[in-house]
UniProtKB/TrEMBL annotation:
Name this polypeptide is given: 4-hydroxymandelate oxidase
Signal peptide: none
Family: Belongs to the FMN-dependent alpha-hydroxy acid dehydrogenase family.
GO molecular function, one term: oxidoreductase activity
EC identifiers of the protein: 1.1.3.46
Organism: Saccharothrix longispora
Top class in the EC scheme: oxidoreductase
Length: 373
């Protein structure tokens, strides 16, 4: 990865995702690091996500007779080499000049879907040239015509699913960004929202330019009728991201969603929201096989992927670690992150006595700590 003599590593190559994060944190400006790492409010939910994951104990099976595990799976109709997709994340050119193009290329090489964000700093057309399997994430915008235009662009670019994020009627109060007066540098922009992005670049003594921009362009009145409108508008499988309530999840699939993502936005929206992994089993029960149930918020290892599967998830979305890898070494850094996750997950399957992903969903779990299911 081009990193040498790094404290905590003997070879200069990170041995786990925590080391990748430490390397990235040392390289990034404070305001950018805080923009990525931070949560909302007192960051209670940000911390609780990790505590709750650590509190999930998996009960391994023995006498499995498994020599090699198959990590492949279908996620919302997309064939993937791992039960993992890269989560939608904004403004990736903040951490590397190639941004989303580099991250998507690494995801494609690893055989996992890459989710292009509405607030991507490279366009879906540019990213599609990597040949990676793509999903497109949609925020609900005040300009309904622009929503329709983005859906059409995603379809034309060959995206295989449409992901609508529903937990950002307004941006959570992210105190790190407010203290830093965070704003985008001139060279980084929301490539799909070329017009009306001035607010995001205006640095303040106290306050967040990105939050001001979000307030200006996002529509907080998103409701069930809008989901029905979107379902009728696109031929793509529809994924609803940001669901924690079982009743909401059941209604989403009842209205034609192919999947839901159990997510509290990585602790960046409602502070005090339930940890995603705590909400996961009840959402799985409510969906009852009528659609895929994906999980995100706090995934940091192959063991975390195993935990989510054992609790009934179809797969997980991987967020911040991808940005840390991108910051460290661009496409090669993201490739290293995904390879670490692949190796850890394959070993976790074997240690749990599982020949494949389906077997992992049959594992029992116990609560070993606070906040666990």
């Amino acid at each position: 990865m081009g990193v040498r003599n790094t404290p905590g590593t003997r070879t200069g190559v990170p041995a786990d995702l925590a080391e990748v994060e430490r390397l990235a944190a040392a390289r990034l400006p404070t305001d950018v690091r805080d923009f990525i790492a931070g949560g909302s409010g007192d960051e209670v939910t940000l911390v609780a996500n990790r505590v709750a994951l650590d509190g999930v104990g998996v009960v391994p099976r023995t006498f499995a007779g498994v020599e090699a595990a198959d990590t492949g799976v279908s996620l919302v109709g997309t064939r993937a080499a791992l039960p993992v997709a890269v989560a939608p994340m904004a403004y990736q050119c903040l951490v590397h000049p190639e941004g989303e193009v580099a991250a998507a290329a690494a995801a494609g090489a690893a055989g996992v879907p890459f989710t292009v964000g509405t607030l991507s700093s490279r366009t879906v057309e540019e990213i599609a040239k990597t040949g990676a399997p793509l999903w497109f994430q949609l925020y609900w915008l005040r300009d309904r015509g622009l929503v329709g235009e983005l859906v059409a662009r995603a379809e034309e670019a060959g995206c295989q699913a449409l992901v609508i994020t529903v937990d950002v009627p307004v941006m959570g109060h992210r105190r790190r960004d407010v203290r830093n007066g965070f704003a985008l540098p001139a060279e980084v922009r929301a490539a799909h929202l070329v017009a009306g992005t001035t607010e995001a670049h205006e640095r303040r003594d106290v306050g967040s330019g990105v939050a001001e921009h979000t307030s200006a362009v996002f529509d907080p009145t998103l409701g069930w009728r809008d989901l029905e409108w979107l379902r009728a508008r696109t031929r793509l499988p529809l994924v609803v991201k940001g669901v924690l309530d079982p009743l909401d999840a059941a209604r989403c699939v009842g209205l034609g969603a192919s999947a839901v993502v159990v997510s509290n936005h990585g602790g960046r929206q409602l502070d005090g929201a339930v940890p995603s992994v705590t909400a996961l089993p009840r959402v799985v029960e409510a969906v009852a096989g009528a659609g895929d149930v994906l999980f995100d918020s706090g995934v940091r290892s192959g063991t975390d992927v195993l935990r989510a599967l054992a609790l009934g998830a179809t797969g997980v979305l991987l967020g911040r670690p991808v940005l840390w890898g991108l910051a460290v070494d661009g496409e090669r850094g993201v490739a290293r992150v995904l390879e670490l996750l692949r190796a850890e997950f394959a070993q976790a399957l074997l240690l749990a006595g599982c020949a494949d992903v389906d077997a992992a969903r049959g594992l029992a779990t116990v609560s070993t700590g606070r906040g666990a299911p």
